[in-house]
Design brief:
15% strand, 317 residues, alpha+beta
Length: 317
């Protein structure tokens, strides 16, 4: 089961206060309800992949509008097969349609909605369980969203979240309006606002693990990059030493530089720290890491002076 579905199930397990019923229904119905006018009259049709949502709505609809809807389902064919649950209301339609402003829709109604804080929370919860989604933090990028048919409702939801210090943006998409949240901190706050406690803990644990893995990967990549640079520099040192040996310059160098050369030749891939630790066994005396680094730098400078002179001579010739 997806993380989004788990969060919705948790939200649907929460009871509603009496004053929260209308805003929850309003948010949910404007997400999944359509008013259908046929030759037999008008009916309200709700469709969703979550039967839990319809079962949650039915008692409130039955009590508030004296209706007795039934649930049916059909199998959706195609690449992504799924079961769609349908709730049809054909009796006492007018009070429901007018109360929820399903038809006709006017922007002024959304502007005139005056919800209290807990009613705003219920509206967001209803909107989310109807047309919301949230990515699993273990599997994908951080992202949560709610799709609205009407822009004023999307803007209302955005204002409610902003008031609760949750940054959300609204984007027009295929004649609909998508409210989305991208930052991990805001998504965590959004889950807390929905009162999805288990979702908050799962998201926090997943985020910690993900950040830890990313940190480990960065360190490993850094170590690999540093290791590659170290190997390349060791190879350059060995090439320089081979050149100096071929030209007979090694014996002319100071004993300290010769000691550093000896260490590098015996331990071709060792780091400076490792060469320092091995120096007492190889040389019979200790050489510090900085001392070895200084000596090998002098060797490289000497090598580069010699090779640059030979290039200059070649140009003159």
């Amino acid at each position: 089961m997806s993380f989004a579905r788990e969060v919705k199930k948790e939200v649907l397990s929460l009871p509603l206060k009496e004053n929260q019923i209308f805003p929850f229904l309003f948010g949910a119905l404007h997400g999944i309800a359509d008013v259908v006018i046929t030759s037999d009259g008008m009916k309200v049709v709700m469709q969703t992949q979550m039967p839990q949502l319809l079962r949650y709505l039915i008692p409130h609809l039955r009590t508030r509008y004296q209706i007795n809807p039934q649930i049916r389902f059909y199998e959706k064919s195609g690449i992504f097969k799924s079961r769609i649950y349908v709730l049809e209301i054909t009796e006492n339609i007018q009070p429901l349609v007018e109360d929820m402003r399903l038809l006709p829709w006017t922007e002024d109604f959304a502007k005139n909605l005056n919800f209290s804080d807990d009613e705003e929370q219920a509206f967001i919860r209803g909107s989310f369980v109807a047309k919301g989604s949230i990515n699993d933090p273990k599997k994908s990028r951080y992202h949560a969203e709610i799709l609205f048919q009407e822009e004023p409702l999307a803007r209302l939801a955005q204002a409610i979240l902003t008031k609760n210090e949750i940054k959300a943006n609204v984007l027009a998409k295929n004649n609909q309006h998508l409210l989305y949240i991208k930052k991990a901190e805001d998504i965590s706050s959004f889950l807390a606002y929905l009162q999805a406690t288990s979702g908050v803990f799962y998201f926090a644990d997943s985020r910690i693990l993900r950040d830890l893995n990313n940190s480990v990967n960065r360190i490993m990549n850094c170590d690999i990059a540093n290791g590659n640079k170290s190997l390349m520099y060791c190879q350059r040192q060995l090439e320089a030493i081979a050149y100096l040996e071929e030209k007979g310059y090694i014996a002319k160098l100071s004993p300290r530089l010769q000691d550093a050369i000896r260490l590098r030749k015996e331990y071709k891939d060792a780091s400076l720290s490792e060469l320092s630790e091995l120096s007492a066994n190889v040389l019979g005396k200790y050489m510090s890491k900085s001392g070895i680094s200084h000596c090998l730098t002098e060797v490289m400078n000497f090598y580069e002076q010699l090779t640059s002179k030979s290039k200059d001579v070649g140009k003159v010739e």
